[in-house]
Amino acid sequence: MSPRTANMAVAVHPLLAERWSPRSFDATHTISDEELFSLLEAARWAPSARNSQPWRFLVGRRGDTTYEQIFSTLMSGNRLWAGQSSLLVAAVAAERLEDGTPHHGAAYDTGLAVAQLAVQAHALGLHAHQMGGFHPEQLRSALGIPDGYRPLSITAIGSLAPAELLPQELRDRETAARERRPLADTFFAESWGNPLTVRHDG
């Protein structure tokens, strides 16, 4: 068990319990073509409403032009660490269906695809850190994203490095205890705010 394994209320699959979002990545690590295809395939097979598959991804490997363009759109706090990752992946959602009507579930479905990519990264012994801290219009301009497609997130993927390599301001966050809101504050039944009662004999 990893020291970063979440303190779950009940046992869940290790891929979920052990998944976390580091900031310290090994700047010498590269991802193989086989690993990259595995990540992309995991995202490709995410569920979506009416199999509309609204997600599109811009994928940059450290050192290539796409990576540098994606990196340039990150907000300053994320630029402190994300440039050490092996991949930067920008997730974009199609805002309309093929018939031209609005796709109200596009962001939701694209989020599912990113989640599958993140879990697959962990299955490969890698780590993924999803970011909302970027400038969408800069990304749109830098990479020619057309109208009707909405940039949603950027994910850094790579191999874990020691927290000590981070700037001091980020080290404490890297090693802090992992926490989540209690179940009773999140899952309701009968009415809003009324905690769902779940019996657990463990």
UniProtKB/TrEMBL annotation:
InterPro entries: Nitroreductase (IPR029479), Nitroreductase-like (IPR000415)
Keywords attached to this entry: Oxidoreductase
GO MF assignments: oxidoreductase activity
Domain Nitroreductase: residue ranges: 17-66, 81-158
Keyword Ion transport: no
Family note: Belongs to the nitroreductase family.
Name of the protein this chain belongs to: Nitroreductase family protein
Originating species: Streptomyces himalayensis subsp. himalayensis
